[in-house]
Amino acid sequence: MKTVLHKADTRGNANHGWLKSRHTFSFANYHDPERMNFGVLRVLNDDMVSESQGFGTHPHRDMEIISIPLGGDLKHKDNMGNETIIREGDIQVMSAGTGVMHSEYNNNPDQPVKFLQIWVIPNKQNVTPRYDQITLQTADRKNKLQQVLSPNQDDAGVWIYQNAWFNMTNLEKGKELQYTLNDPQNNGVYAFILKGDVTINGKELNERDGLGIWDIQTLNLKADSDTEILLMEVPMSQ
After folding, report:
1. Residues of the binding site
2. How many helices and strands in the chain, by DSSP H and E?
3. Binding site for Fe cation, residues?
């Protein structure tokens, strides 16, 4: 088993007034050559956008972009004709492919919006851009794993052009779960603790800590308090 631990307070910190963001991996003005990625997981940004503020229209290409709202309403608009709102419980994905233009704004005039922005390097280049958004029942992840992303169009959750699986769980204190990798020979898992405290394969983690694990077949999770966890299984090489 190999591991890399990123404590919450070691993440990059960006404060633009209207945007407060913590970067697990190098992004924009935050650059750490030791923290460029975890396998094909390239970006994990923990964003908070002020009331009625947001990101103006900007481009992306050849990247799988996943947004997971954690509170508030985020308005999305793109040049593919999509104009929608994503909320807590939703999962949004864009395959940027040959190129997309989009904007994201806080749709709330009276509260910030919080969300995770995740980029995964795809296994196919120059694909036709696509957009998808689904609403999941968060009750279905209580003390069990809920798959929210996979490589397969017919599986639960959204899908991307990569051999990756994301799962979320809300574990009550004292509860335990085991996660078995779909592709243990090629993949690792990056665990991001959204809330609470948990022990994963003997490593104690707290809120907003991240732990990457590879060269292993299973993860053992034990909740040391009520906790919410995002598990991202991704290939370790591009």
Report:
1. 58, 60, 102, 104
2. 0, 22
3. 58, 60, 102, 104
